[in-house]
Amino acid sequence: MTFSEVANEYGIDQNIGSFIPGRFYSLKIEPQLPDLNEVTIPEINDGKPYFDVNPTGLVLFHENWRETTLVLNLRVIPPKIADGLLNGYYNFASRNGLDRLYEVKIEQPTEENELTKVKYTTILKPLNERRSIDQRFYLVTASALADMLRIHSLDYAINKYNTDSIIEAKLIDWDDFGMLVNPLITPKGLFPLPFNIVKVFEEFVHKSLE
Q: I want to staple 201 with a disulfide (CB 3.0 to 4.6 A). Which of 30, 78, 99, 111 is the partner?
């Protein structure tokens, strides 16, 4: 599945006013400019030669996160590197409170079948309950994430948007987190057209790893 297909199938619609960093989202953006071309795009994307109106990735914490949304955009990272990044972030979250977002559901034997064993199932707590549980991994910054993953810099894949330009946000919750691994690649939503996704992957490697 593509990231968009994952979001449409499994994403949870979020109110823009209550959407918070430290989670994985698929966003839809209303561009500031009607003409997204080679000249205008670097002006609105911190010099980067691409613009994504449908980024998917980790929304990063920073001081002004309510006004400006920073997304570590998985769509512009080569898939094998993105998969390693997802695995690294999951391991980091697991060491820093991810288990607190889950609860154990106990299923007792029924009267009809008293020989049935007690079942213990680990499930995510309700989303509204988890909003009040602060965890260290929610507050990860771009530089801290790069250091943790031993990557020189993630700046090339970090996209900045005015939060009021977000017209849709879908949360990819932890139960569906694995759906982001090894996605189908599509340049749909990436500008300028025609879009060269291979070149963007190569530039990420050059600027981030070399």
A: 78
Give the dihedral of Cα atoms 95, 96, 102, 108; nearest 10 deg. 50
Q: CA 131 to CA 137: how far, in whole Å? A: 14
Q: Which amino acid is at 79?
A: P
Q: Which long-range contacts (CB under 8 A, 24 or more apart) does 44-51 make?
A: 45/159, 45/160, 46/160, 48/156, 48/159, 49/200, 49/203, 50/76, 50/190, 50/191, 50/192, 50/195, 50/200, 51/159, 51/190, 51/191, 51/192
Q: Write the pLDDT tens digit of every residue in 29-67.
A: 999 888 999 999 999 999 999 999 999 999 998 888 889
pTM score: 0.90
Strand partners for 69: 161
Q: What is the pLDDT of residues 170-193, one digit of tens each?
A: 999 999 999 999 999 999 999 999
Residue among 123, 202, 178, 171 nearest 26 (CA) = 171
> Where in the sequence is the domain holding 156, given as residue range(s)?
3-94+136-208
The span from the CA of 42 to the CA of 166, in Å, is 19
Give the other-Cβ count within 10 Å of 26's Cβ.
25
* AA letter at 169: A
Closest CA to 53 of 83, 82, 32, 81: 32
User: What tokens were used for 104?
Assistant: 């154990």
Distance of CA 145 to the CA centre of its chain: 13
If asked whether residues 48 and 12 sit together in one domain, one would say: yes
Mark whether 19 and 109 lie in a shared domain: no
Structure tokens belonging to residue 162: 């005015």
